[in-house]
Design a protein that fits this description.
Helix content is about 50%, strand content about 15%. The protein is an alpha/beta fold. The protein has 2 domains: about 15-240 and about 445-465, 3-Layer(aba) Sandwich (Rossmann fold); about 245-445, Rossmann fold (3-Layer(aba) Sandwich). The strands form 2 sheets. It has a 7-stranded parallel sheet, sandwiched between helices. It has a 6-stranded parallel sheet with strand order 10-9-8-11-12-13, sandwiched between helices. α5 (about 140-150) links the parallel β4 (about 130-135) and β5. α2 crosses α19 (about 445-460), α6 packs antiparallel against α8 (about 185-210) and α12 crosses α17. The chain is globular and about 90 Å long. The protein starts with a helix and ends with a helix. Bound molecules: 2-acetamido-2-deoxy-beta-D-glucopyranose. 2-acetamido-2-deoxy-beta-D-glucopyranose binds next to loops. Pfam families: ALG11_N, Glycos_transf_1. It is a single-pass membrane protein. It is an enzyme of class 2 (transferase). It is found in: Endoplasmic reticulum membrane.
């Protein structure tokens, strides 16, 4: 026993001795996945390479089949992000297989989290940096590097592993996708699950407490992290969106309205039930009826564009099914002729649709963010988004101290119809003012803003040595 403890202490001392000052590690086991999280990673490293060129950057990654050059090339091709190759290295992890969800049909959350801890141990064993940033959400990497390695650690959280909402659901015994019927109905199982969740939340909180700096990707995540980690010092750093492409769009919708008497609405998003295309069709129906009464010379058209990026086959099938459903519904309402389907169209076509759209409509309830809402505003359409989630908390917001509206929020059929009537009731100049303000406001989501906010937040773990 004594020997065991001694051995552990020696290992610990060795780990700490090997800590390399002047290095910053990013724990991002799937760094070559090419998704939104990776865009954040590369943008963050690019910013830091510029700001702190004397540090050396290291990414802990499980992509053993890709070379450094290949990974950097993908970052360039996929996101247009150019990194300084002499100042970045990759530490390849062998145990990434352990964190894959399909290994754990039961107790996935705890198993994956523990596996993340083991993966972090492997990472620490291979390289101990002065500063470690968890950019993928493996909570146990924080105590691993902090307590065992003695690094300073920061976390960028996209999504809380467990939330107070999830615990509440089990407490109230409601059946949902992650709370099965049998559990909701059984007393004992519910109590056990509640204990499991509470214990997990406790571990998650302890891990969160280890972070010297916490960044979150939006207000929704901020609220959850603040309550589950019980810390009030997290900073919101919005992920960088490519707003410039949309800002460059020339608007022609007003001309179409004047010359052809057509009100064009656009809806962007994958065709999934929670996006609530049905509500859009109902609103279109009501607007058409209203126009018939009040402005018989004006027509309305809704373009439904969806699944244009990374359209994967599986999704496409799903979309087509949903599409049939919605077409039926559109004809049932007698508005099938007023609906244009632009599914899986090329990007340029999507941008062209945007330029001719007066109003961009978004109907998903409680979306965590809503990149399509940012894009709609940047494109110069008048945004009409659901009054909940990200659109309400982060996006459709006037700039501080300004009363100028940047768009509309609505929560039900009547409110949507009312908002559209309002928009059509404005003069062109009034609408232009909303457009201009909206295009200015989305600057919050640009790469420049990301750079600024990230630098401000991460400085906390850097300046102590500088
Ligand atoms: C934060 O990340 C989560 C998970 O990827 C995502 O659902 C959400 O939209 C993101 N929020 C922002 C503001 O991008």
């Amino acid at each position: 026993m004594l020997y065991m403890i001694l051995l552990l202490l020696v290992i610990l001392a060795l780990l700490r001795l090997r800590r390399k000052s002047g290095t910053i590690g990013f724990f991002h086991p799937y760094c070559n996945a090419g998704g939104g999280g990776e865009r954040v990673l590369w943008c963050a490293i690019r910013t830091m390479q510029k700001k702190w060129p004397n540090y050396h950057y290291v990414v802990f990654s499980g992509d053993r089949d890709a070379s450094k050059e290949e990974i950097l090339m993908k970052a360039r091709q996929r996101f247009g992000i150019e990194l300084e190759p002499n100042n970045i290295d990759f530490v390849k992890l062998r145990l990434r297989r352990l964190v894959e969800a399909d290994l754990y049909p039961r107790f996935t959350m705890i198993c994956q989290t523990l596996a993340g801890g083991i993966l972090a141990l492997e990472a620490l064993w291979k390289f101990n940096p002065e500063i470690m940033i968890d950019s993928m959400g493996y909570p146990l990497s924080l105590p691993t590097f902090k307590l065992l390695g003695g690094s300073r650690v920061a976390a960028y959280v996209h999504y809380p592993t467990i939330s107070v909402d999830m615990i509440d659901l089990v407490e109230r015994r409601e059946a949902t996708y992650n709370n099965k019927d049998i559990i909701a109905q059984s007393n004992i199982l519910s109590i056990l699950k509640l204990h499991y969740y509470r214990a997990f939340a406790f571990i998650y909180r302890l891990a969160g407490k280890c972070a010297d700096a916490v960044m979150v990707n939006g207000s929704w995540t901020l609220n959850h992290i603040s309550s589950i980690w019980r810390r009030s010092d997290a900073s919101v750093v919005f992920p960088p969106c490519d707003v410039s492409t949309f800002l460059a769009i020339q608007q022609t919708a007003e001309d179409s309205l004047e010359s052809s008497k057509i009100v064009k609405l656009i809806s962007i998003g994958q065709i999934r039930p929670e996006k609530d295309h049905k509500l859009q069709l109902q609103v279109l129906h009501d607007i058409i009826k209203w126009l018939q009464e009040k402005r018989p010379d004006t027509r309305a058209q809704l373009t439904i564009a969806g699944g244009c990026r990374n359209a994967e086959d599986k999704q496409r099938v799903q979309q087509l099914q949903a599409r049939l459903y919605s077409i039926d519904y559109a004809s049932e309402l007698g508005i099938a002729d007023n609906v244009k389907w632009s599914l899986n169209v090329p990007y340029e076509e999507l941008l062209a649709e945007f330029s001719d759209s007066l109003i961009s409509i978004h109907t998903m309830w409680n979306e965590h963010f809503g990149i399509s809402v940012v894009e709609g505003m940047a494109a110069g359409a008048i945004m009409l988004a659901h009054d909940s989630g990200g659109p309400q908390m982060d996006i459709v917001l006037s700039e501080k101290g300004s009363k100028q509206s940047v768009g509309y929020l609505a929560a039900n059929r009547e409110e949507y119809v009312h908002a559209i009537r309002n928009i059509l009731g404005h003069t062109r100049q009034e609408r232009d003012r909303i457009r201009a303000a909206a295009r200015k406001a989305v600057g919050r989501f640009s790469e420049e803003q990301f750079d600024k906010k990230w630098t401000e937040a991460i400085r906390k773990v850097i300046d102590r040595t500088a």
